[in-house]
Write a structure and sequence with these properties.
- By secondary structure, the chain is mostly helical.
- The chain folds into two domains: 80 residues, Arc Repressor Mutant, subunit A (Orthogonal Bundle), CATH 1.10.10; 38 residues.
- It contains six helices and two strands; from the N terminus they run H-H-H-H-E-E-H-H.
- Helix 2 packs across helix 4, helix 2 packs across helix 5 and helix 3 crosses helix 4.
Amino acid sequence: MKKELLTELSIDFASPVPVYEQIKKVIKYAIAKKTLVEEEPLPSIRELAAFLKINPNTVARAYRELSQEKVIGGRAGKGFWVAKIENAGEKKFELLKEEFLKFLEKAVAMGFAPDIIKNMIDNFFREGQ
């Protein structure tokens, strides 16, 4: 089991986002960052469930959905691995877009005007973070 993946796999049980969705997101992000590479084995369902102290069915659901999305390959009893990544750039873009939209939604919900959000983003790139 990759230590890098496990350090990134923290579950927020107070979050309104279901645990299986959080697992999917962390795995997709690890693939996008190349923490996980093509053909690399993933932890078994039981191993990951024990590490996270959650029901194995939750991990199984995350793996099943990632398999359906063709992010990972494998099946229960045989093991899972990172699938061959087709259109990696496009998938990374979609993941980033999803996160960016969440940021924008939070900023608007906090009462920030669009011009202030835009200035914040512009300043970030102008100042180099």
